[in-house]
Specification:
4 strands, binds zinc ion, flat, 17% strand, two-stranded antiparallel sheet, two-stranded antiparallel ribbon, alpha+beta
Amino acid sequence: MAKCDACGTHILWGAVREGDFTYCGENCRAKGVTQRVVQQLPDDVLDEAIAEVHQGECPQCGGPGPVDMHTSHRVWSVLVMTSWSDHPQLCCRSCAVKAKLFSTAFSGVLGWWGFPFGLIITPIQIGRNLVGLATGPDPEVPSAELRKLVSLQVGANVLREVERRRRQQPESPVFEDE
Ligand SMILES: [Zn+2]
Ligand SMILES: [Zn+2]
């Protein structure tokens, strides 16, 4: 079975092909194009952009970094229905602690009321929040998730810039230095 080159999902139908690459949909095709741009960018350009976000201000509270990807985990249930989800966010440690405490309280109050999954999933999601509170990503080093997020953003910016220049001067080479 074909596998999406961007997200790794097995593709049942509706594969999008581009050259040697196969994608599960239009979103992943766009992501794949961005990933290939990222692969061509010099490491120090990416490292610098990643360090800037990591050491920068928290986009949520404006406080000092380090900023990283922090995921909190929630669950809620009604009778036989239980719904659980993970919420990644880019923020500082203190915003992450607030989000995880909120998710822990949210799940502790609303998680249990479904059978059987509420009883199974609630302790799991609460446990994941507590583990996250106790450990969290290393503040010294940007996590793999942060690296990926910032790299894709840099790649998307490069693509936009290339597109903008192409529209302005259709004849000139695309990567010419100014
Ligand atoms: Zn995909
Ligand atoms: Zn913050």
